[in-house]
Amino acid sequence: MAEPSQAAPDRTALLLMDYQPPMIGSVPKGDEVVDRASAVADRARAAGVPVIHVRLAFQLADHAAVPDRNKLFFGMAGAGFFLDGSPETDIDPRLKPAGDEIVVTKTRVGAFSTTDLITHLRAKSVETLILGGISTSGVVLSTVRDAADRDFGLYVLSDCCADGDENVHRLLLETVFPTQATVLSSAELSLPGES
User: Which end of the chain is more exposed for a tag (fewer CB within 10 A), N or C?
Assistant: First the structure.
């Protein structure tokens, strides 16, 4: 797989996922993770690499449609959490979408399953995804698996991900993700157009 720096900027996209207050507050050093993701977003914009944001938010009808067999989302829906327009659905201000950057809203864990993300990526002829998000065992894991099955080239930014369980975070980054993605730090990332 070509390194991001060898790919055309318009065939690569930076996917920033679930950088929302409840997620950031649930992981160690969440603010540092967001600061690093923000720096990568600035670099991507300067290099002409599209930045795409993914967030979790529900409409009232989405809440009502969550079945009781969904262990993760049923309780949230019943309590009215992540209702679109509430503060917990906001993307952290440090990662505020710029200009016409795409924002997709999901109602499940992965970035693809309940969104039109794939339509946006195909429209832009994106072949390579650079991923960061909270949590590593949630949105990042689900998105890596799904994107790999869709034949995207994948890079996971290890220091732009975090999880409430450090052991799970480490296991995913060191053992699970490398079977389908290149894992590297934001400092190691070389974007198209960067010297």
Answer: C
